[in-house]
Amino acid sequence: MDMGPRVILEAMAAGLPILADPWGGAVDRVTSECGWLLSKADQIELIKNVTAEELKRKGEAARERARAEFRPERWIEVLT
């Protein structure tokens, strides 16, 4: 289980919306504003029906969340 999924943070920083399973570190990273936490069956339905506008909106929100919440300096501040 990946409790700190770097690939999710990298995608968010690149302005990509996130589609992930609802477990592990994804739950702590992905909000409804920047992506989806769905079962595999629900992911298939989303992919069939999602619009370009929704992808763009969630991607922009993902980038802003990555910038605001997941800076290494912030983690150091929390730990010290």
Widest sheet: strand order?
Answer: 1-2
Q: Strand tally, please?
A: 2
| Residue runs with pLDDT of under 50 for 5 or more positions | none
* Biggest sheet record: 2 strands, parallel
Give the helix tally. 5
- Ends apart, CA distance between termini: 27 Å
How much strand? 5-15%
Taken in chain order, the helices and strands follow as HEHEHHH
Core attributes:
80 residues; mainly alpha; flat
Commentary on this structure:
- The protein has five helices and two strands, in the order H-E-H-E-H-H-H.
- By secondary structure, it is mainly alpha-helical.
- A two-stranded parallel ribbon has the order 1-2.
- Helix 2 links the parallel strand 1 and strand 2.
- Helix 1 crosses helix 4.
- It is flat, with a radius of gyration of 13 Å.
- The chain starts with 5 loop residues before the first helix and ends with a helix.
Chart the SSEs and their pairings.
Elements: H1 6-13, E1 18-20, H2 26-29, E2 35-37, H3 40-49, H4 52-69, H5 72-79
Parallel strand pairs: 1-2
Helix pairs in contact: 1-4
Quick overview of this protein structure:
With 80 residues, this protein is mainly alpha-helical. Helices cover 60% and strands 8% of the residues. Strands 1-2 form a two-stranded parallel sheet.
